[in-house]
Amino acid sequence: MAKNATLQNVVLLLGSCIFYFSWSPQFLALLLVTIVATFYISKKIIGAEDSSRKWWSRFGILVVLLQLLYFKYFNFFIENVHDFLQQIGFNSPKNILSIILPLGISFYSFRMIGYLLDVRNKKIKEIPTLLEYSVFVAYFPTMISGPIDRSVPFVKQINVKRDFSSESFSDGLRQLLWGLFKKLVVADTIATITSPIFENYSTLNGSALFIGSVLYFIQLYADFSGYSDMAIGISKLLGIKVHINFKFPLFAQNAAHFWRKWHISLTSWLTDFVFTPLSIQFRDYGKWGLILAIIINFLLIGFWHGAAWHYVVFGLVNGLMYVPLILRGKLGKKSKTTEGLLPTFSEAKNMAITFLSFSLIMILFSVKDLAMAGEFYKKIFSSSLFQIPNFPVQKEVAVLIFIMVALEWITRHQEFALENFLKSNSRFVRWGFYYVLVFLIFLFYIAPKGYIYAQF
């Protein structure tokens, strides 16, 4: 049994290395060296006394953070120091380096840090083998855009032989198909509209930019959740279950509800390792301590996404969205969606407000800088918002969005839209529906536009 699991893991690791090399060949060695370094540091942590455990864990986290800070944030630091010196009268050269960002560095860095913290906190009783740890960090389906898995549930699955399961295989194929539809049909088709809107925003009126912001929010969801569905589906084909990343966030009814449904693996990681320790640290300050912990948490979420001030403001605004919920004592209150076909009036109102709010917030995510964001918001909140949009939108985009949203609303209590959809119908009806989705994928397929979250 163990030998078979080892062989499976060897194949997985080789496949992951080949995958990574095909995308980012110059950084495969960096990834492997960091994996080996953090693995042996984790062995030092588990064998050390409590005082030494903290030292070794901090050293391991520093090893991971130094490469992340260099590749992702070094130029941001240099630019801001240069601008500050200019402001106070010092003329210094702006020595910006040409730094290429390693593929998936934000995702695999968090996997490594989470692992080291779990070892330090004694949540991992037995260190996995180097092979198992390497598979966990470099696992190819989740390398580009997550989800960010935790080591304990992942390693439990790969330290035993995975046997073929027709049920898991079929479930994986359905989730892979749904992910392909969302990414290649919905997201990439919307991108043919949103890209020109954001490129030519200075010539467009407020109504066109508002429509662009709404479409971009849907595009971002279809792109990112589509990738997550594909990653989870491929993992199921391999007999491995990875962290769920989305729970139909387009139907969220407030900010807290939204972030419990959006990029779940990141928010749960930060909840465990950042927000919870901070909320304990600030508990003597009551609601204001909770607000401070949440804002710090979301500033980190914003900064995790990118080394630019518009990402920092993106995080800050999301944190501020929690303030009314905390002051009214509704932060922990879970929003329920009706079991019926149609939402209640209250649910529909809350969903519409949340959807429009995050459509506007995501402008901060999509722009190049704060100046562009300012121009975007200035035009949207002007009288030109009530003019006829001076940018054409194809009708088929609305149809594709309707198909995706309608199917996800009908199946919102499942893991993904096709999990049990039409299972009670005949095989002819089910497979006919699958063929329609495949046909739409080939019909709307255009040159691959890459994944939005691959840049992080």
From TrEMBL:
It is found in: Cell membrane. It is a multi-pass membrane protein. GO terms for cellular component: plasma membrane. Keywords: Acyltransferase, Cell membrane, Membrane, Transferase, Transmembrane, Transmembrane helix. PROSITE patterns: PROKAR_LIPOPROTEIN (PS51257). GO terms for biological process: alginic acid biosynthetic process. The keyword Transferase applies. GO terms for molecular function: acyltransferase activity. It comes from the Bacteria. It holds the Pfam family MBOAT. The chain crosses the membrane at residues 20-43, 55-76, 96-117, 288-305, 311-331, 352-373, 393-411, 432-454. Coiled coil: none annotated. Belongs to the membrane-bound acyltransferase family. This is D-alanyl-lipoteichoic acid acyltransferase DltB, MBOAT superfamily. It comes from Kaistella chaponensis. The lineage of its organism: Bacteria, Pseudomonadati, Bacteroidota, Flavobacteriia, Flavobacteriales.
